[in-house]
Amino acid sequence: MSSSAATSSTGSIAVSVWRGDARHGNFQLFQVPQQPSQTILDVVTWIQRHADPGLSYRFACRVGMCGSCAMMVNGIPRWTCRTHVNKVLRDNRLTIEPLRNMPIIKDLACDMSEFFDKWKQARGQFEGSSTRDQQVAALSPGLPRRRIADAATECINCGICYAACDVVSWNRDYLGPAALNRAWSLQNDERDCAGEQRLRAVAGDAGCHQCHAQQGCATYCPNELNPTASIAGLKRMVSQAWFNKGLACHPGKKCGLGKRHA
Ligand code: SF4
Ligand code: SF4
Ligand code: FES
């Protein structure tokens, strides 16, 4: 049931949905029946099942675990399976778009390749030194670095912080809050042995020193992580390494501290 009228009748919501790709597209209006405890993902699913089966969007778990359902809702990045309509409805209207700062594939599905590539660029993979024949090293939950690492580990890769980040909008090379948050978590994992290489990776021109610390990421992270604090930790770590050991980020290039290396 699609409608060209912007008005909504009692019991229905006027929902504008982005249709198309990054180059061509427009908003299309649907009238969606309002239900108790309805989520934004329920609204999108209703449109696909009852109004336009061609609508593209992404989801998997529906319970806030997989991070795949994030979209812009009335201009704010949100996990749609855990966002109730009655919390975000304005004048009985919703506007639903794909996440900001990522190329659109089609409709509400965006291409997250660059988001995940940046995890690799920030050396977001654990690099241990033990083999599979050795026992897994036990780390007490009370250790100070373990507690710091724990605070940053609940990331579900939803991309909401990345969509909220203005620096990513201005500088598409910026590694972004999620990748840097992951780097900070690993820097505090005592079993990881790639600390110096990871510091070089996050200290470059597109790294932690680009963050302006205004907390857009922390404001909207659905799991209440604080990438801004993680990035501040990385800045401190890079500075300490630079003063203590003259950390060189990329030979021949300026590092995040403005030092040009031989
Ligand atoms: S605090 Fe830093 S990483 Fe977070 S949104 Fe702002 S610029 Fe981006
Ligand atoms: S830090 Fe938060 S907002 Fe960013 S990807 Fe992880 S869970 Fe999503
Ligand atoms: S569908 Fe998995 S987090 Fe929303």
Provide keyphrases for this structure.
single chain, 262 residues, alpha+beta, Ubiquitin-like (UB roll), Fumarate Reductase Iron-sulfur Protein, Chain B, domain 2, two-stranded antiparallel sheet, elongated, disordered C terminus, binds iron/sulfur cluster, binds FE2/S2 (inorganic) cluster
Describe what this molecule looks like in 3D.
The protein is α+β, with helices and mostly antiparallel strands and 262 residues long. It folds into two domains: 99 residues, Ubiquitin-like (UB roll) (Roll), CATH 3.10.20; 133 residues, Fumarate Reductase Iron-sulfur Protein, Chain B, domain 2 (Orthogonal Bundle), CATH 1.10.1060. Helices cover 33% and strands 14% of the residues. It is built from ten helices and seven strands. The radius of gyration is 21 Å and the shape is elongated. One iron/sulfur cluster binds next to helix 5 and helix 7.
Write a compact overview of the structure shown:
The chain contains 10 helices and 7 strands. It is of the alpha+beta class and 262 residues long.
Number of helices: 10
Alpha carbon gap, first and last residue: 65 Å
CATH class of the largest domain: Mainly Alpha
Tell me the major beta sheet. Answer: 5 strands, mixed
Q: What is the rounded Rg?
A: 21 Å
Which ions, cofactors or small ligands are bound in this entry?
A: iron/sulfur cluster, FE2/S2 (inorganic) cluster
Strand content: 5-15%
Average predicted local confidence, pLDDT: 90
SSE string:
EEHEEHEEEHHHHHHHH
Give the overall shape. Answer: elongated
Helix content: 25-40%
Low-confidence stretches: 1-9, 249-262
CATH fold label of the largest domain:
Fumarate Reductase Iron-sulfur Protein, Chain B, domain 2
Major sheet strand order: 2-1-5-3-4
Give the beta-strand count: 7
CATH superfamily of the largest domain: Alpha-helical ferredoxin
Number of domains: 2
